[in-house]
Amino acid sequence: MRRLQPPDGLPPISIYESRRVEPGAITSPSLIDLANRWEQARGTRRFPTQSDFPPESHWDLVGRIHIAEAVGDPPDFRFILFGSKVAYSLGFDMTGRLVSEVRPDGHGSGLRRDYAEAVAEGKPVFALIRLKRDDRDFAYERIILPLANAGGAKADHVLVTTLTTTWNQSADFFAPPR
C-alpha cells in the first residue's frame, strides 16, 4: 500500500501532543455549539446520524469539518470528507485515505485511537492539541462526534472539527484550565 506523505518542502511535525479533556476545557463557541447540536440531534436515540448534520447547519465550520467512516475491526477510519481549508493549509487532501496513513505515525495512531474511543463510548471526545512545525507552535481544540448508520443503532462514522486556539508559550498548554 502506498503511504501518503506530505508534499516535498512541507516541514515535518517535530512535536505532536494531544490531551483528551472535559467539555468545559473547550473555549471555541463554534465547537461548543456543535456539541450542543449533536445532543439535540440525538434526542432519544443513542446516536444522531450523518443526515442530522447537513452542511447548512454549520456554515461557520465549512472547510474545517471531516467525516470519516469506520472500516475493519479494530477500526481504522476512511475520510469521506476532508475539510478543504484544512487540506489547503496542510498542502494535501486526505479524502478517500485512511487515518492510519496520516504521518507522522504518532499523529495517525493517536487520531485512530481517539476516533475509535468516540465510536466505542458513543459520546463526544474533546481534545487539546499542540504541534510544532518549522519551529512554529500551533494549538488546537478538537471535537470528535460519533454518528450512526441510517438505522441509528451503531456508530460507524465520526464528524471531526479542529479549530486553532491561542498558544501561550509562557503557560503550560496542558495544565488544567483555571
Characterize the structure shown.
The chain has about 180 residues and is α+β, with helices and mostly antiparallel strands. Helices cover about 20% and strands about 30% of the residues. The protein contains 3 helices and 6 strands, in the order E-H-E-E-H-H-E-E-E. The chain has helices spanning about 30-40, 85-90, 105-120; strands spanning about 15-20, 65-70, 75-80, 125-135, 135-150, 155-165. A hairpin with a 6-residue loop joins strand 5 (about 135-150) and strand 6 (about 155-165). The N and C termini lie far apart (about 45 Å). Mean pLDDT is about 80; it is low at about 1-5.
Write the layout of secondary structure elements.
Elements: E1 13-21, H1 29-42, E2 65-71, E3 76-81, H2 84-90, H3 105-121, E4 125-133, E5 136-148, E6 155-164
Antiparallel strand pairs: 1-4, 2-3, 2-6, 4-5, 5-6
Per the principal axes of the C-alpha atoms, what is the gross shape? globular
| CATH H-tier superfamily | PAS domain
Structural class designation: alpha+beta
Strand content: 25-35%
Helix content: 10-25%
How many angstroms does the end-to-end distance come to? 46 Å
CATH architecture: 2-Layer Sandwich
What series of H and E elements makes up the topology? Answer: EHEEHHEEE
Biggest sheet character: 6 strands, antiparallel
The CATH topology corresponds to: Beta-Lactamase
- How many E-type strands? 6
Classified by CATH, the class is Alpha Beta
Count of all domains: 1
Low-confidence stretches: 1-5
